[in-house]
Amino acid sequence: MELRVVETFLKVAETGSLSRAADRLGYSQSAVTMQIKQLEAELGCALFDRIPRGVVLTDAGRTFAFHAHALIEAADTARSCLSSADGEGALSGPLRIGSVESPAAALLPPVLAAFARRSPAVETVVQTSEFDKLIECCRRGELDLVLTFEQPLVLPGFTREVLCEDETVLVAAPELVPPAEGPLTPEELVRLPFVLTERGESYRQDFDRALAEHNLGVTPVIETGSTEMLLRLALGGAGVALVPRFSASRDIARGALVTLSTTLALPAMAVQMLYREQKWVTPAMNAFMRDLRLAMQTVP
Asked: What is the pTM of this model?
């Protein structure tokens, strides 16, 4: 079984089209068709069902796709093992990082920039998405590691490391914060306009649960999955935002945002790194994780 044929199969599965896969791979459509037929003949089963607008995986195709990802990852690992260091110890090879939006925007850029300067031969790719999608990609071998900002969690089949603990804070433009003699009560808090992440997402879910314990709730004026956008909306006076402290620390330090004191218990979270237990940690991945651990020690 040739790896290039397996890669072609995965590209057809990803695009749902023989012609689109051919374009992405730089092959002719007839070459892609021939490779898929060769693979189906070798495996003794049909991997795709043909439909009017392309192809879809059969049950056998879905089963093979799981193992195909593992085959490609094993090949990448072997290449990385052999070429991860030259005579002077320079790192090379692929590094695929998945991250939810808040640490990706606030914590990763300086770590990535320093790592890229030291190891320019490492092919680093960063993918941002929802946590569940990232974990599924990691489980399929499409990502090397995943960063998230959640309450401490345990996932079967994954190694998890807490990089730093942090709190969530309510922040707003100074002119939006009402004068108060003490912390705002939950009842006073819900009278303010809010800009929040989507309902059910991470710390938003814990915030809603804390309000529900007081028989209260909020309807945000704006919902968005982007922490960066929430901060900009808060800076513009659109409403109170609930964000990780590390995301808002610079704006708080320069006085552009203020934190709201409240008697409501706000969710405490942790920046966590996860990767598959059976994954071989390449030199590039090991070096990046070491840099990440050091950087997290100085999170404000």
From this structure: 0.66
